Amino acid sequence: MGRIANVERKTSETDIKIKMNLDGVGNYNISTGVNFFNHMLESFSKHSMIDLEIMAIGDVQIDDHHTIEDVGILLGQAFLEAIGEKVGIRRMAHAMVPMDESIATVAIDISGRSYCNMNLNFKNEKIGDMTSDIVVHFFESFASSAKLNIYGEANGENDHHQCEAVFKAFAKALKDAIKIEHDQIPSTKGII
Fold this sequence. Notes:
Layout: E1 4-10, E2 14-21, E3 28-31, H1 35-48, E4 51-58, H2 65-83, E5 92-99, E6 102-109, E7 115-119, E8 126-127, E9 130-131, H3 134-146, E10 149-155, H4 159-177
Parallel strand pairs: 3-4, 7-10
Antiparallel strand pairs: 1-2, 2-4, 5-6, 6-10, 8-9
């Protein structure tokens, strides 16, 4: 059957459909109306090997906040559905990714608890057509819906490089955390 999810959400601000296959090959088809965000999600899909289809229509004529926030919420919901009972997963993982002068580190625990701690210090208000301060909120929204912990930080001079390194590190860490390694629930509680 596979670790697959199809989720949809329609509000007065956004209309979003997401298909996710955790055991994919990194194929993607993404359209959010925010070009730089598309690029980050495509990079995430390719480097996590998670197949991802995202079709999002949002009120981007106002700004990109509602669209990016709601994609984060729904992407987290898709992940939570696809990961299932979490039997056999590695659960915890981390990755460090350089991109030119920048470097990013992301650590993940698929713990069943939501927490996000991102230390990102972008210099500019925008990265391409995406508002830079929404990046942290995207990860907070994902962590909340996916019920996992994310810790991330980036350093560098170029906002594009820092942001892309964070998404790639997130992808690599998540790819490792969802690996099936055994047939147990990786928790002393017996449940995650």
